[in-house]
Design a protein that fits this description.
Distance between the termini: 39 Å
Number of strands: 2
Number of helices: 5
Length: 136
């Protein structure tokens, strides 16, 4: 478990901005945990799309600062949620790739891509996340 906490600290290091989402005394709510996990997962994904630019170092630093007072269990939860989100997107991508060529596959590719771009767009338009996710 200490290895996971160390990995989280290393993966989430850099700058810092204060936020209303900043962890206060006590555990983060499930909504906050979900938000931080989505930020981290989509930071990786959106940075690979030509339509978006992600300031990953600043994002990771901001998340680190906001999670600094969180418990190891909370960090583990956020990282597990992040991993689950990435795994789900990878599974969706694999399922689309394995479809036989044709109209169904073309439609599935379009829907999958639109879903990912939509999630990145939501990040870019979000009051907090928009600092780190920008459209090109």
């Amino acid at each position: 478990m200490l290895k996971i906490a160390a990995m989280a600290a290393a993966a989430l290091a850099s700058a810092g901005l204060s936020s209303p989402l900043q962890a206060q005394e006590g555990a983060l709510s499930p909504v906050q945990q979900e938000f931080y996990a989505e930020l981290l997962a989509m930071g990786d994904v959106c940075s690979e799309l030509p339509q978006f630019r992600v300031h990953k170092d600043d994002l990771q630093g901001w998340v680190t600062q906001n999670l600094a007072s969180s418990s190891e269990d909370t960090l583990d939860t956020v990282l597990d949620l992040r991993a689950a989100k990435i795994e789900a997107m990878q599974a969706d991508t694999l399922a689309v790739r394995e479809m036989p060529p044709g109209a169904s596959r073309t439609r599935a590719v379009s829907e999958h891509y639109a879903d990912v771009v939509g999630r990145c767009l939501r990040m870019a338009q979000h009051d907090e996340a928009g600092r780190f996710f920008q459209r090109n």
